[in-house]
User: Fold these one by one.
Assistant:
Number 1:
Amino acid sequence: GQQLNQSPQSMFIQEGEDVSMNCTSSSIFNTWLWYKQDPGEGPVLLIALYKAGELTSNGRLTAQFGITRKDSFLNISASIPSDVGIYFCAGFDNYGQNFVFGPGTRLSVLP
Amino acid sequence: EAQVTQNPRYLITVTGKKLTVTCSQNMNHEYMSWYRQDPGLGLRQIYYSMNVEVTDKGDVPEGYKVSRKEKRNFPLILESPSPNQTSLYFCASSYRGGQPQHFGDGTRLSIL
């Protein structure tokens, strides 16, 4: 089946630093989503992208839908301790009518 | 409050003993799906449903069954659980396919 790759797999940063992570696919997607998962909870939607080239912000978070429709990135500015968690990208394929999730990027923020 | 509710949250059981994990949403969503989450593999879709009485296989359907008799409920059935089905399971729903999904809090299954 389709697969998404996320990089980096994990990262340790200092509080206040900016963070960048990305998601790539060998297939084209028509929708890209970014989720965050805290321990013991289900993923929570951060940003949804519906058009190639789209750049969308949600507070300190900014995500872009790649022009090729095969990638997306998520930036977090001025990280804080509550940014700790696992960040997942997800792509939706209109043909298969199902979502594909990446393996996640685990973020740790050091005080 | 809009939510997706899964039960049970935790279950330890033995190989071969049929079990059902229930999922209910109160948002009148058409699309519902089940995922399993395993370390390093992210979320993999098991089954999904575009609407009542319409279900389809996801990426890892083997060993699972689902049904969608009512819009709000989408139970996951393991007829004969095996240890390789030990995992964290999530139910999710959205207004329709392609829309961002709301996730439940997860069900941790351990099959001994």
Note: The longest strand of chain B covers residues 42-51.
Number 2:
Amino acid sequence: GQQVMQIPQYQHVQEGEDFTTYCNSSTTLSNIQWYKQRPGGHPVFLIQLVKSGEVKKQKRLTFQFGEAKKNSSLHITATQTTDVGTYFCAGPWNNQGGKLIFGQGTELSVKP
Amino acid sequence: NAGVTQTPKFQVLKTGQSMTLQCAQDMNHNSMYWYRQDPGMGLRLIYYSASEGTTDKGEVPNGYNVSRLNKREFSLRLESAAPSQTSVYFCATGAGELFFGEGSRLTVL
């Protein structure tokens, strides 16, 4: 069945270093979403990408959707301790509208 | 305006016991979701409800039942709890982006 795979599972960086997490789907996605979950918290929506090749920026965060709409990435420039948490990508399951499935997440830790 | 409210926040069960997790939203969305989160597994969809009166299985529905009581409420029932159901459960709602509750931490001994 359809899977959404995310790598790496963990990433430890020094504050100020960059960070990237990658998301790959076994099937073409109509859209992809990204969420952030702080330790002990609940997932919070960051962004949705819809168009092939789309790039969106939110301050130090850059989101990309691949040309084939089967992969996506989140890049954080110059990480800060406030970036700590787990980042998830999510896409429609078998492109069935509302059913959203998540990747395994990338847990980011930032050393001051 | 609470958003998505889940109860209880914590629960310990013995194997074979039953319980219901409650979820209510005041955001007026049609869609509601139940996910479970386990270390290294991300969030896995248990059940989904597109609207009042409709429910649909997700990735891991076995051992669970759901009830969409009305537009606001979506409950998740464990009829006979098993240790493999020890997890953090999240309810969510939304049209497009999802809004999550604070989570319910369930331990089955």
Note: Chain B has a mean pLDDT of 95.
